[in-house]
Hints:
Elements: H1 2-12, H2 14-46, H3 51-74, H4 82-85, H5 87-118, H6 123-146, H7 160-166
Helix pairs in contact: 2-3, 3-5, 5-6
Amino acid sequence: MKIMSGISTLRENPKFKNLFLTFGRFLGVGLSGIAVNLAVLWVFVSAAVVPFLASLLATEISIIWNFFLHDYWTFKEKGRDASRASLSAIFSRFIRFQLVSSLGAGLSIGLFVLFNSGLHLFYVLAQIGAIGLTTIVNFTLNAWLTWEWFKGSSPGYMPIEQLAAENNLDTL
């Protein structure tokens, strides 16, 4: 019962709530990125662009779309002060976001191959599993590396020892 009580207490913690709110925003932006990707893909293919090139362009445009939505909305607490609003700061975050997105794409493909070929999961289930795991990795890496969300100045940051002490989790 101590574990359930600890989890219930943790859910009421404002910093924990902020983490879930931010992750929910991250998912919402990701869904809008899928819509942008598919719309751009359709436009390019309809304009007789080779599908592979159309897919590359659609992917990059959706990455750019996602970056600006994340910067403005998902991680807004980390992007509003003057030092983070300069063009060089935005460009630096954009480059880090591109790198994390590329890593995420590679991870997703690798997991798909593992799930589909290695574990013999149906390709749709393999893709869903790969996307799900990659989403968590992308959120964590972007929060940490791109928006530096886990640094001390962040509203989402609290050292694990302090989080445990404030929520009586040290008795688990």
